[in-house]
Specification:
Elements lengths: L22 H22 L2 H24 L5 H30 L5 H23 L6 E3 L4 H10 L8 H19 L4 E3 L5 H22 L1
Antiparallel strand pairs: 1-2
Helix pairs in contact: 1-2, 1-3, 2-3, 2-5, 2-7, 3-4, 3-5, 3-6, 4-6
Length: 218
Amino acid sequence: MTTEKSLPNKEQPGTILSYVNDVPNLCSLAGLACTLLAIYTSIIGVYAITMIGMIWAVAFDWADGLIARSMKGRTKQQGVFGGQLDVLIDIVSYGVTPAILLLSYGEFEPVFLVGAFLMIAGAAIRLSYFSTFGLAGGKHYTGLALDNNSIILVFIFLFEGIFSGGVFSIILYACCLGLTALNVSQIKTPKLSGNPINVYILAAYTLGMTAIYGWKLL
């Protein structure tokens, strides 16, 4: 039998829940709550709320990084924990959620399972690559960053009312597959969330989309 021994110079971890007492990590969890709302409303077919949940999930995702970089006294452990938390939430927000949206809008027909699987698999592969190799040259992502999926899909859904349900389901399917292909491609894209100006632009976009989709609910 082996016993777990700690290294003498290794910083001892806190309790699991102690890492929740951290503003950036709380922000990440707020984004996860928005993601859950998006998943639930996708399943029941209230897509306007789904779009609001999806874009707010991106907003919280971007905000947590901005807050983390501006905080003083945040420990290295909190930063590492936060990075892992971000990756796990990203697979749900940008992989599982769009896949469920696609399945729901396709009325859960079996043919949409293929697209849903490809989206989740693409997100998992994309995040695994990033976790392993990081930014190319320290400045650019390899492949389209997953948060762009939600930003683009929320915009595309503005045109849903122009088409019949059957036609738009095909358009949505094609867009989802196209985004997945870009996610796992070798194109280099800038890290938009690292620039405070882009965060403010996203904030305006988020508020605008919330107003538009909120109006659709009236």
